[in-house]
Write a structure and sequence with these properties.
The protein contains 16 helices and 4 strands. By secondary structure, it is mostly helical. It has 2 domains: 2-159, no CATH class; 184-406, no CATH class. It has a two-stranded parallel sheet. It has a two-stranded antiparallel ribbon with strand order 3-4. Helix 11 packs antiparallel against helix 12 and helix 12 packs antiparallel against helix 15. Residues 186-355 form the ABC-2 type transporter transmembrane domain. It is a multi-pass membrane protein.
Length: 415
């Protein structure tokens, strides 16, 4: 599990890897295996910052540098563990530093330097099979000793180098010409691919709406199976069925996209705050990924509903499918818009109810003899044009010219 967690962090190719107690809860062998892997990560050129307590000698010898803190968080030692060649002793620099303090007992042969240094500063607990090196507390202020040491002065000199904590006069100022390193086309390509992958990996969302479209097409197609549209009553019934199916498909798409888009909104706000990408390409990717699924759901509906209603024209079938798919796509985009514009999913759902309730003013649900203001309300509602096309064009091509003239509705009379 420890290796899996570290592997997940390495998947992002970080330049600096932070590990908090990677050997906690492990035996000596497992801890050595984990730290051998961490050592390989460090050898690959990455910086590894690791907190560790009471390590075994095998684990301790894997580190390059040590930051030793006493109780209270004060620094007792910071520097390389080993001396430069030809001194090949393990932790030679650390041992020489503490043994140079007169009050500190020398490290016995074969003892763990990690245990020894912790006992020197009064923070050690001997591990299993290890003997306590010091029996009395050393009366030395290790914090003051380090502040006066050569190691502290070397640390300060390193921090005062130009380009570390202050600008370097020999190097040009680092200026970013753009908020984002990737080009616009790279952002667009990555975001479109990301959303296509997300949609492909969310079958619960896509399969549900495909099955709903299929069931709606069969159920409403059977309502007027092979209906006759040569009378006003038959034509009016068919228009009502088309109106209902169009609204059901649109409302289903609107309601279905709310929780899905709301879930993605959290990551969008986080990534947008860090200027990961341009918001324009994000919304283009989100809208583009919907197109194939919307058109396929419209295809499943039309391929059953259209012939069951008694229509036979292939041209009208294609136009009906495209127009219905565009209407569903519009409802889906409205859902995405309100999710990002409004604070919660619930508020977006309420606004969607009000928007879709305005379809009662659309031409399919109003009679030509109604007051003229209903036409005005119908014109400004979002489903107006789509429902008008779906309710009229199939009958326009399915009926003969003489039949259309005989079925002409009465003109509007002034009130």
């Amino acid at each position: 599990m420890k290796r899996l967690t570290i592997g997940v962090e390495l998947a992002a190719q970080p330049s600096v890897l932070f590990l908090d107690e990677p050997t906690s809860g492990l035996d000596a062998h497992s801890a050595k295996v984990i730290m051998d892997g961490v050592r390989k990560v460090a050898d690959s050129g990455r910086t590894v910052v690791c907190t560790i307590h009471q390590p075994s000698s095998d684990v301790f010898f894997l580190f390059d540098s040590l930051l030793l803190l006493k109780r209270g968080g004060e620094m007792v030692f910071f520097g390389e563990l080993d001396n430069a060649q030809p001194d090949d002793r393990e932790c030679g620099h650390l041992i020489d530093y503490f043994e140079a303090i007169p009050e500190v007992a020398r490290l016995p042969e074969g003892q763990n330097p990690a245990t020894w240094m912790l006992e020197c500063i009064g923070a050690g607990v001997a591990g299993a099979g290890e003997k306590t090196v010091t029996n009395t507390t050393v009366d030395v202020d290790f914090v003051v000793h380090f502040r006066e040491s050569v190691e502290q002065q070397a640390l300060i000199n390193g921090l005062n180098q130009p380009g570390v904590t202050s600008p370097s006069p020999d190097l040009p100022e680092l200026v970013f010409t753009s908020n984002r390193a990737a080009s616009s086309m790279t952002q667009l390509r990555m975001l479109v691919g990301r959303f296509l992958t997300i949609y492909w990996r969310t079958p619960s969302y896509n399969v549900t709406r495909l099955m709903i479209s299929l069931c709606l097409g069969i159920a409403f197609g059977l309502v007027l199976l092979n209906g006759e549209y040569t009378s006003y009553q038959g034509l009016n019934a068919a228009v009502g069925v088309i109106f209902m199916t169009t609204q059901y498909n649109g409302i289903t798409a609107y309601v279905g996209t709310l929780p899905f888009t709301g879930h993605e909104r959290e990551s969008y706000y986080r990534e947008r705050a860090s200027q990961t990408y341009n918001a324009l390409w994000y919304f283009i990717g989100a809208t583009f990924a919907e197109i194939p699924y919307i058109f396929f759901s419209g295809f499943l509906f039309t391929v059953f509903f259209y012939p069951l209603m008694g229509f036979t024209s292939v041209t009208t079938w294609v136009l009906y499918w495209i127009n219905l798919s565009l209407f569903i796509l519009m409802q889906t985009y409205l859902g995405q818009l309100f999710i990002y514009a409004l604070p919660t999913v619930e508020v977006a759902a309420i606004v969607g109810v009000l928007i879709n309730a305005s379809s009662c003013f659309s031409p399919a649900s109003t009679h030509p003899l109604d007051p003229s203001r209903s036409d005005t309300c119908g014109f400004i509602t979002s489903p107006h044009s789509g429902i008008r096309f779906l309710s009229s064009y199939p009958f326009y091509l399915a009926t003969a010219p003489k039949t259309r003239r005989s079925m002409r509705l009465p003109r509007r009379t002034s009130m």
